[in-house]
Each structure stands twice: as structure tokens, then as C-alpha cells.
């Protein structure tokens, strides 16, 4: 498997809305980080769809190496 591009080595804090679908960029190439803009096309990467049960602030992974896709698990501290 190819390695994703590291968009940034810190998470993206995002205020999410309950019931809305979010598509997290897994390749790191999107110009609309942390969300997918389709730049993965032709690669083995696909966006990760996520929705939430309540309005809240979540931390989407910016380094693209999290084991808890799409949310940050601290993996960036090991890069």
C-alpha cells in the first residue's frame, strides 16, 4: 500500500453537525483538508465517510497515519 501524503502533523479541529456526512481525505492530497476533494482518483486511496450523533468538536487526523480513521489518535507524534 502507498503511503499517504502528510497534510499536517497536527489534527484539524472541526465543529461537526449531527447527521451530516463528512468525507475525510485519506490520501493527503486534497486542497480542502481534512476533507476529500477527489484528488485520490486513480490511486488506491478512498475517502472515509463519517457522521456524528451530536453537534460537537472533533479532531480529524491531519497526518493521515491514524489507526482510528478518520479521527486523530496521536500517531503524528511518532512521525
Automatic annotation (TrEMBL):
One MF annotation (Gene Ontology) recorded for this entry: 2 iron, 2 sulfur cluster binding
Iron-binding zinc finger CDGSH type domain mapped to chain residues: 9-46, 47-79
GO cellular component: a single term: cytoplasm
Pfam family, any one: zf-CDGSH
InterPro entries with a match to the protein in the record: CISD (IPR052950), FeS-contain_CDGSH-typ (IPR018967), MitoNEET_CISD (IPR042216)
Keywords: 2Fe-2S, Iron, Iron-sulfur, Metal-binding
Name assigned to this protein: Glutamate synthase domain protein
Amino acid at each position: 500500500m502507498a503511503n499517504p501524503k502528510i497534510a499536517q502533523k497536527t489534527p484539524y479541529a472541526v465543529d461537526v453537525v449531527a447527521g451530516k456526512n463528512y468525507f475525510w481525505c485519506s490520501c493527503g492530497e486534497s486542497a480542502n483538508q481534512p476533507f476529500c476533494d477527489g484528488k485520490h482518483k486513480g490511486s488506491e486511496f478512498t475517502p472515509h465517510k463519517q457522521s456524528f450523533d451530536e453537534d460537537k468538536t472533533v479532531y480529524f487526523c491531519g497526518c493521515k497515519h491514524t489507526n482510528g480513521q478518520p479521527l486523530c489518535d496521536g500517531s503524528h507524534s511518532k512521525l
